[in-house]
């Protein structure tokens, strides 16, 4: 019985090492990063080739044909 109590006390004492400690002076959880890093999309857009030819700079967006979508439901009187 004493061995089980000692074993339980040691388990409780060693498990407290894995519990995160609470800092009493600091209530913020932020990491306080000085400079935010560029994310992948912003970095990829930064590294894209620049438009240097006037034909590229003045190019208008492509006009794709538009069509009316068919009705989703057809009511039949059968």
Automatic annotation (TrEMBL):
Entry keyword annotation includes rRNA processing: no
Region (Disordered): 36-78
Top-level lineage group: Eukaryota
One Gene Ontology biological process: translation
Signal peptide: 1-17
One cellular component (GO) term of this entry: ribosome
Residue ranges that the Swiss-Prot or TrEMBL entry lists as coiled coil: none
InterPro entries (alphabetical): Ribosomal_cL38
Keyword line: Signal
Gene Ontology MF term list: rRNA binding; structural constituent of ribosome
Composition skew (Basic residues), residue ranges: 36-52
Protein known as: Uncharacterized protein
Native species: Skeletonema marinoi
């Amino acid at each position: 019985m004493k061995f089980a109590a000692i074993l339980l006390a040691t388990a409780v004492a060693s498990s407290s090492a894995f519990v995160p400690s609470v800092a009493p002076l600091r209530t913020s959880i932020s990491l306080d990063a000085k400079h935010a890093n560029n994310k992948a999309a912003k970095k990829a857009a930064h590294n894209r080739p620049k438009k240097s030819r006037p034909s590229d700079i003045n190019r208008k967006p492509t006009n794709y044909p538009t069509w009316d979508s068919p009705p989703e439901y057809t009511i039949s009187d059968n």
